[in-house]
Amino acid sequence: MIQHLQSKTTLYNGVEMPWVGLGVFKVEEGEELKEAVKAAIRFGYRSIDTAAIYGNESGVGEAIREALAENGLSREDLFVTSKVWNADLGYESTLAAYEASLAKLGLDYLDLYLIHWPVAGKYKEAWRALEKLYKESRVRAIGVSNFQVHHLEDLMAGAEWKPMVNQVEFHPKLTQKKLLHYTKEQGIQLEAWSPLMQGELIHDPVVQEIASRHGKSVAQVILRWDLQHGVVTIPKSTKEHRIAENGSLFDFELSDQEMERIDALNEDRRVGPDPDNFDF
Ligand SMILES: NC(=O)c1ccc[n+]([C@@H]2O[C@H](COP(=O)([O-])OP(=O)(O)OC[C@H]3O[C@@H](n4cnc5c(N)ncnc54)[C@H](OP(=O)(O)O)[C@@H]3O)[C@@H](O)[C@H]2O)c1
User: Residue 80 in contact with residue 104, Cβ under 8 Å?
Assistant: First the structure.
C-alpha cells in the first residue's frame, strides 16, 4: 500500500517510481523555482517533473544538486522526469534533445523520459530514439504524455517496448475512465498532470464537504483520490506550506462511497489542450 511520501509504484520494467512528485510547469528559472524544489526534497519528495519546454531544467538541476548536498542524499535517491518537446520529435533530433536536457539538468541520466505530445506522424520515430536510449541504459524508464488509447495502440503496434508511463491531464472533472482502465490492463502506469485542475477545483463543494469530514484540505482529498485510483500524481506549488500539504496524504483514506462521489464530478472537462485536436 501507499504509506508515505516515498512509497513507490513498480513500473512493468521493475523500476520504482514515487507515487507523488513535484511539478514545476510555469515556474521560471530563479530563486522561487530553486526554493520550491529544495523545499520539496527537504520535506521528503523524491520525484521532480520538468520538461524541455518549461525552460527551467538548468534551475531544477541546480536546486537538485544543492538539495542532495544539504540533505545527505545521492542522485539515486531521486526520480527525475523530463520530456522531449514537439519541435524535437524525430530519431536524431530526439536523441539530441535528450542530451540537451541532461546537459541543462547537469545529470548523466534521467529516471523517466517522455514524449510530451502525440504529434501525428512524428511520435513513432521519437519512440525509436527513446527505445535506443533505454536499451543502452541511458535512461531508466521511457514513456509518453497526452496519449489517448488510439495513440497508444498505434505506437505499440510497431514498438519493441510499451511505454512504461502515460502522463495525462487527470482530475475529478476529467476522470479518464476508459484510459485508466486500458492503461491498467496494459501495465502502463498512468500519471496525473494538473491534478488540482490548476487550482480550479479548490472550491468544489462536494470535495469541500468530504475534506471537512476528514479534517483535510480539498487538495489533499483530490491527491488522495489519485493515489486510491492507482494514479501517480505531481501537484505543482511554489509555496512551502502547500508543498508540505500536498505531500501529506497518508494518514487518511477515502471510502468507496467518497471515491464514487468524486468520480461522479466528471464532466470530461479539460483545463489544457485536447490531445486529439492541438496545433503546436
Ligand atoms: N505533460 C503535460 O502536458 C503537462 C501539462 C501540464 C502540467 N504538467 C505537469 O503537471 C504538473 C502539475 O500540473 P499544473 O502545474 O498544471 O497544475 P496543478 O498541480 O493542478 O495546480 C497548480 C496550481 O494549484 C495551486 N495549488 C497547489 N497546491 C495547492 C493547494 N494545496 N491549495 C490550493 N492551491 C494549490 C498552485 O499555486 P501555488 O504555486 O501558488 O501554490 C498552482 O496555481 C506541472 O507542474 C507539470 O509538471 C504536464
Answer: no
